[in-house]
Recover the amino acids of this structure.
């Protein structure tokens, strides 16, 4: 496989027609992979508001509680 000089794999992907994950329009280089600042901001808001969330296992909360109780014991 020939490697093009001066272009990283990410730059090569940016040059291909990639659709905006929010609205489906063609993305632009400045806001890649989005088509505009508006769509980039919409996506960011979705992350902040919890629309995109990774599922957690039931035991995750217990680990956090154990850490909190250990920290409070150190302060005594």
């Amino acid at each position: 496989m020939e490697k093009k000089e001066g272009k990283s794999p990410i730059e090569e992907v940016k040059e291909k027609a990639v659709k905006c994950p929010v609205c489906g329009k063609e993305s632009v280089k400045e806001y890649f992979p989005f088509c505009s600042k508006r769509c980039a901001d919409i996506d960011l808001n979705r992350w902040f508001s919890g629309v995109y969330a990774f599922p957690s296992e039931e035991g995750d909360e217990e680990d956090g509680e154990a850490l909190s109780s250990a920290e409070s014991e150190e302060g005594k």
Summary: Residues 23 and 62 are 39 Å apart (CA to CA). The helical segments are 9-15, 37-48, 60-74. DSSP finds three helices and no strands in the chain. The two ends are 63 Å apart (CA to CA).
